[in-house]
Amino acid sequence: MYDFLTGPMLWVTFLVSFGGLLVRAVMYVRGLSWQLDRVAYRPHLGYGMRGGIRSILAFIIPFKARLWRVRPGFTIIFFGFHIGLLVTPIFLEAHNVMLKQAFGFSLPALPAGVADALAWTCLAGGLFLVLRRIAFPEVRIITTVYDYLLLVITVAPFVTGLIARYDMGNYDFWLTAHIITGEIWLLSLPFTKLSHVLLFFMSRLQLGMDYGIKRGGMKGTDMAW
């Protein structure tokens, strides 16, 4: 089972995940109003890209956008969750050993203590997001079972990974569960709301270009959009 999951299944997972995200990106671009956007974007592409990059940076740098400054507690938890979610699996030493075996290359590895701290931060952030959806009426009213399922899919690799890491129970079982849940998460990316891992950047880029060119942003140089 382990050889299958870290061999052929890993290849299939990466092909479906990244290939699917590429398709979503193409669909997003093709869904733009070319009758309007090609007239606005192309003649001022350089200015539009600057506006788009500013838009992205405003939302990926903590406390840069006003949205993050008005809710500092939420901002810290939100960024801690996402940093742990993305950095830990990419730079975890054990994952890079598997990456080396499967694809012939690896990335720099995090110290074990840092990886543990990021994993626990991600779990704490996931728990906070669940409690937030339950406690706040304005969030609860738009929350469905689907949203909770996505949170379970997202944190499950961290739960199973930490159980295997601390050798709680049957190690082989939890290692297998960790690999399966991790591959389920990757396979879910192009088919669910988790696709915002890519579409967030595309939508922020589009909005930045939109406000920078088509809606008067060229009149100013320090726009937040």
What does this structure look like?
With 225 residues, this protein is mainly alpha-helical. It has a domain of 128 residues. Helix 2 runs parallel beside helix 11, helix 6 packs across helix 8 and helix 8 packs antiparallel against helix 10. The longest helix has 24 residues. The mean pLDDT is 88.
What labels would you give this structure?
globular, mainly alpha, 225 residues
Describe the sheet with the most strands.
none
The rounded Rg comes to: 20 Å
- Helical content stands at over 70%
The chain-level mean pLDDT equals 88
Would you report the number of β strands? 0
User: In what range is the share of β-strand residues?
Assistant: under 5%
Number of helices: 12
Spatial shape: globular
Low-confidence segments, ≥5 residues, pLDDT <50? none
Helix/strand/pairing category: mainly alpha
Strand and helix order: HHHHHHHHHHHH
- Multimeric status of the protein: single chain
- Tell me the span between the first and last alpha carbons: 49 Å
Task: Write a short abstract of this structure.
With 225 residues, this protein is an all-alpha fold. The protein contains twelve helices and no strands. The chain has helices spanning 2-6, 8-30, 34-41, 45-60, 66-69, 72-91, 93-103, 112-135, 137-140, 145-165, 171-188, 196-214.
